[in-house]
Every structure is written in structure tokens, then in C-alpha cells.
Amino acid sequence: MDKDFERRLAGLINSGERGVLRGGRKGVEKESLRVSPDGAIAQTRHPQLLGAPLTNDHITTDFSEALIELVTPPFGETWELLQYLCDIHQFVYRHLEDELLWATSMPCAIDGDASIPLAQFGKSNVGRMKTVYRHGLGVRYGRIMQAISGVHFNYSFSPKLWGVLADVNRSRQAHQDFVSEQYFGVLRNYRRYGWLVLYLFGTSPAVSNSFFAGRETTLPALGADTVYEPYGTSLRMSDIGYLNKNQSTLSVSVNSLAEYVRDLTRAIGTPYPPYEKLGVKVDGVYRQLNANILQIENEYYSYIRPKRIAQSGERPTKALHRAGVEYIEVRALDVSAFDPVGVNQNKLRFLEAFLALCLLRESAPIGISEQPALDTNHLLVARRGREPNLMLRREGRDFPMIEWARELLDSMQGLCEMLDHGEPSRPYSSALEQQRAKIDDVERTPSARLLTEMRQTGESFFQLALRMSKLHKDYFLGLYPPNESRLGEFATEARESLETQRAVETADRETFDAYLAHYLAD
């Protein structure tokens, strides 16, 4: 039993602030590939009526010109967040003509790296830097990996929680130092327990053959066009997805803010011979921003990140060093083919309670020998999470995954009851019960559901994803009555973003070489 967790939970309950866990701010970033009606990655430019990806805060692009990213503001209530996400999908679909948004994380039909167009952000220096950075990702890791999409959950705990928790912990730290330290405790515990999110919500156990583009794969076939992991949950979060071997030797500590900033700063300042061989500027054309282990901080892939909104031109590590952690970004969610917006309320409510568990449980520093075991646990669940009697490493010994999962969910009961404060429908407790059902019956997991659907319909992964993509388009275009007020706001934002981009481009006074040198030197 985690006595510190029990003490902290009791302290919050006895504080007189029964709703102290409520009021956390939550937002979502949801990526989707634009595809043609026959399921090929779109070669068209980002629709102008959606605005300028460089300067539109809510509709932008990620790696590819065809990879739309929809960004919500932070909301206090989950239903508000989902309503906004629904409205923004409806707006986008009004301007896609015959194109679709691909309904899954693993990509559509791809004809090799060359078929994936890089995102374009205009002729300003900052826009050019964004495109060069993406070109660098492509030459380092291949473009196909960058065509994988996901859902990122951004979360900050309620400001009123920090004062109560500081009293419970008898902390004498300065306020922001205490907040940052607590968030880093969340990061460490997410590394320890985050495999649970892959089991409960992973929705990418299969992928089309085109993903491998002629490369060898050991995955078994499921029909002519599909390969899969029989017990897999999230290929996206496995070693064939984001967890690529190029970053396997990169170690970034989350034991403190200072160590995190130190390690990332070292990585973006240390030359890496294989990248030096690629060249930085060849025949006058940039291939990558630099030849260091990381071009910039965003290149480092992690399940969860500490975040601080940066000032104009400020690098993420500088923002964290300047003012501490403001919120955290959970990056491990697959796009769900079974939810038109790619995510649902129960999933987000569970995540909110899970992050509270990570906050309140004891979170000792992660030792050098512990981190490889944590990475292995995530990989095992991504590749074999539904395998009967799967064992994970826990405190140096093998432990049954399902038994551990039940323990974690049991620990969340009191947290969900606190989050339900004032809500007769008990939405957080209900979300927890839905996840318990997946522990008791593996066939209820979305990864199992996806494979079952493919077997029952006889569809390949590609065919199922294309069918769901068309269903989602019909859903959004058929919504009635539409929220015309919000759709009008999106149209205004799109027009204003185009004007803002033109202003940014007009304001540039230095060469791109000078701009890049200044940015990387700061």
C-alpha cells in the first residue's frame, strides 16, 4: 500500500474543499490525414478557407501538408471540449470538398516517402524554419513514420489544488517551484503506469502493408493487405511507430525541471555523426536545421511532456526554465475509429483521474536501471497487451499486468468520487467502471474490437478505416442544427490568420540564415 498516497488523498478529502480536484483545464490536439475518396493521401494544398497553418491557432498542419491538426482551447468541462471539437470538425468538413479525414492513427494508402508532401508555412523565416525542420525529420526517420496521427491531451490541475496540496505535503517551497516539482512527479509516475493507457485505449493493432513500403516486417498477415499483432494494442506507440531506434540511446531525465532542461539542451547542442553525414545545407538547400542529436526540442518523442506557453520566438526549454511547468501534454492516445472526433468523454475523464493518481502517488526519482524496465513495459503492452498472463516488470520482478491494472483502477475510486463532486450522474466513476470492464473482458478493449470488426466484415485494415472515414464525414455534414455562431467564428479566424501570415512575411528584415542562427543560438 502507498501510505503517502493514502495520506494525501485523506488530506484533500479532509481539507473542506471536496471539489478541490475539479476545475482542471483540458484541451485536445487531434491529428488527421486528409485523403482522397479512394483512400490515398491527399496531394492538394491545405484548403485556404481553413486559414493559414502558421497563424491559425485552432486549425493547422503537423508534419505533412495533408496532416491536419485541430487544436481546442482549454476548457473546464469535458463536454465543452468535445462540443468544440465536434464543431471544428464540422467546419473543416464544409471545406474539404470530396476529401475525407482518415479515421485511424495508422495511415492510409501510401506510396513511399515521396508521396507524403511536407507541410508548407509560407515564405516568412519562421514558416521556412518549420518546413526545414520537417524535412529534417523526414531524412532522419523517414516520412512514413511521420504520417502516423494521434490525439494529445493537454491538462493543468485546478489552481486551487496547489495551495491545499502544499499544506498536505507541508511544503515550504515557492509556489511555482512546488507546482513544477509536482508536475514532474506526474511525469515519473506516468512513465511507470502509462502502459495502462495503451491497454485501455490503444486502437492500432493492425496496419496496411503500404506502411512498410517494401521494408521487411515480422508481423503476421491478416488477409492480403493487412499485417497485425495478434495481441497488440497500439502499434503506433511501439517500435514500428514513434519509438524509433534513432532515439533509443537518448536519455532525458524527468527527475527534476533542471535535469530535464539540461538533458534536452545537451541533445539539441550535441552533433551526431550520422546526421552530419546527411549534411545541413547542401547546394544552397537546407536538409535539416542542424546536425545535432535533436534539431529542436519538439523532435524528442515522449509519452508525456511538461509544457509552458512560450513567448514569441522563445524556445520551449527557455520557457520552462523561465517560468516553470504550466500544464502537461499526454501524447499516447490513438485516434479512435469508433469516435467521430477521435476521442470521447469517458476516455478524457478517465485520463483526468489517472493524472490525479500519478500526482498523488509516491513518485521517487527514476534510477538509471529503472528506466529501461519502464520502456520495456510500454513496448510489451503496445505489442502484446491483450496476451493472456502477460507479465510486466515491477520493482525488479515479474508481475501480472492484469492484476497490476486492477490495483491501479481500485486506487482511482476515491479520486473519481472527488471529481464527481456536485455531479449526480457520477461521470468520473462511470468512466472508471467502463475501464474496469476492459480489465475483466479483454474483448471490450478497442484494439480487440477493431480486429473483431475486421474478421466479421472480412475487411482489410484499409477498407475498414476508409469505411469509417466516410461514415464520419456523413455524420458531421448531417449534424443539425449546426452551431452557426461558432462556425462563423472559425471562418473569421481563418480569414484573420491569412492576414496575420502576410504581416509576418512583410515584417521579416533578416535573411533566413541569420534568423536560423539567432534562433538556434538563443
What fraction of the residues are assigned to beta strands by DSSP? 5-15%
Q: Say what the CATH topology is.
A: Creatine Kinase, Chain A, domain 2
Q: pLDDT under 50 segments (min length 5)?
A: none
Mean pLDDT: 95
Q: Can you name the CATH architecture?
A: 2-Layer Sandwich
Largest sheet: 7 strands, antiparallel
Q: Identify the CATH class.
A: Alpha Beta
Give the total of beta strands: 13
Structure, described:
Strands 1, 2, 3, 4, 5, 10 and 11 form a 7-stranded antiparallel sheet that branches. Strands 6-7 form a two-stranded antiparallel sheet. Helix 8 runs antiparallel to helix 10 (316-323) and helix 11 (345-360) crosses helix 15 (427-440). The protein is globular, with a radius of gyration of 23 Å. It is 45% helix and 11% strand. With 522 residues, the chain is α+β, with helices and mostly antiparallel strands. The protein has one domain (3-521): Creatine Kinase, Chain A, domain 2. The longest helix is centred in the C-terminal third of the chain and has 24 residues, at 484-507. A hairpin with a 2-residue loop joins strand 12 (391-394) and strand 13. It has 19 helices and 13 strands. It has helices at residues 3-13, 78-93, 125-141, 143-146, 159-168, 175-193, 195-201, 257-267, 273-278, 316-323, 345-360, 370-384, 401-411, 413-419, 427-440, 446-457, 461-478, 484-507, 512-521; strands at residues 25-35, 59-61, 67-71, 100-101, 151-156, 206-208, 226-228, 281-282, 285-286, 304-307, 327-333, 391-394, 397-400.
